[in-house]
Amino acid sequence: MSTTNESCENLTCYMVLDVLERKAIGPICLLAGSVTLMENVLVLGVIATTVRLRQKPSYLFIGSLALADVFASCFFTTSFLDFHLLERRDGPTAYLFKLGGVTMAFTSSVGSLLLTALDRYLCIHQASSYKVLLTRRRALLSLLVLWCITVFISSWPLLGWRCPTELSPPCSRLFPYISQDYLACWVTFILILLALILVAYALILWKAHRHESSMTSLQGAADKGQARMRMDIRLARTFGLILLILVGSWLPVLSFMLVDMSITLTRTHQRAFAFCSTLCLLNSAVNPLLYALRCRELRTALRQSLKRLCDLGKCKTCNGNLNHTIHSTEENVSAVSRDDALTARTTQLDSIAEIVNNQSR
Length: 361
Prior knowledge:
The structure is a single chain. The chain contains 13 helices and no strands. By secondary structure, the chain is mainly α. The chain crosses the membrane at residues 24-47, 59-81, 93-118, 139-161, 181-206, 238-259, 271-293. InterPro entries: Cnbnoid_rcpt, GPCR_Rhodpsn, GPCR_Rhodpsn_7TM.
């Protein structure tokens, strides 16, 4: 059904989900948001508490990705459920502020993925001078630039670049108060970032393939290659999975945004876009598994952190038992009768000996 003549003054034309669709999409958002938050907080905690990881640019980029996905899990989940399930009708400023948080989180996530891809590109193509080219200071500077750009771009609608007619009629059928020019600018920016990520991984695979081909020609035998999979094939499988998830999560959403700039979307298109937008949240849930927990050094740091927590818990248990023993001893001593001093001393010594014997069993 066309929505061309439908009024959007009270945001009704954007609240397109029926009761069954709300019951379906609500648990999806809550589960994906909770899992995304816990995973990325865990990654951030391990990197923040491990000095060795904090010194390496690669893990700084992974930490930036985890921070962006933490924001995405909070901003997207609350905003989406608040709008589509609770049907909260915010004014232009409140709505654009929430949308700006979601835009900042997802833009920073894709930007951090680009920095991670560029880090791997430098590690492969400039292996001898990698530590000189990418120092910790330069990594922090690049992260600062990335977050400043994403915050600046995300705040444009809030600063005044919005639909000139607001809701009479609306400029976009996907986002209230959003100008199509701004939507085109943001979509173009994200597509450029995704294209650069694809190029970076393609160059990494090309370099790995050349390296394996030269090694094979020098060895002159294929026995090693038969014993284990070639490095370029393993990288191709890994990067293929990464790019498949990345493109599969973002392409449907970006396609709807591009179509929205050329035609008037129907309610069916709007409902499909609402479900497709949750794919971006699912991508944020998968990112820690693809980029962080696949790193052996980070997994080792995670196991060490868990071991320290377990040891700390055991120490607290031991201290609790010791305090209980001392407290029980004091109670037994204070319960001794004052009438007979000799009997009191004997009772006290017997009580202490009994407690020590019980604790030693």
